[in-house]
Amino acid sequence: MNSVLVFKTSITSQGEIKQLKPVLNTLIAKNDYWNFDLEDCDNIFRVETKTIEPRTILQVFKGFGFYCEELV
User: Fold this and answer.
1) Nearest 5 degrees, angle CA 68-CA 37-CA 50?
2) Helix runs in 1-72, H state only
3) Is the pTM of this model over 0.90?
4) Can you tell me the distance from the alpha carbon of 13 to that of 36, in angstroms, rounded to the nearest whole number?
5) Nearest CA to 26 among 54, 60, 67?
């Protein structure tokens, strides 16, 4: 069963998403799904996954210098 993980981020542009895209595509399994909602005031990042842990996402964003906080 897929989990839906939702994060508040500091991502504000398509250019920033392009920076993360190769890593996210590698990290997140083939049958999983991710997307950004830059229209939302919290610049939401959503992941539907069976395998990835929230801390992994947090580490990736931090490694690129972006803020990321899991919303529970």
Assistant:
1) 65
2) 14-27, 54-63
3) yes
4) 10
5) 60
pLDDT at 66: 98
Number of structural domains (the chain) is 1
pLDDT at 1 over 90: no
Name residues whose C-beta falls within 8 Å of residue 59's C-beta, 6 or more positions apart in sequence: none
**Do 8 and 42 meet the contact criterion of CB atoms below 8 Å apart?**
yes
pLDDT, average across residues 32-49? 96
Strand partners, 5: 47
Q: What is the mean pLDDT of residues 24-42?
A: 93
Which residue segment(s) compose the domain that 51 sits in?
3-71
Pseudo-torsion of CA 49, 37, 24, 16, nearest 10°?
Answer: -170
Q: What is the largest CA-CA distance in the chain?
A: 32
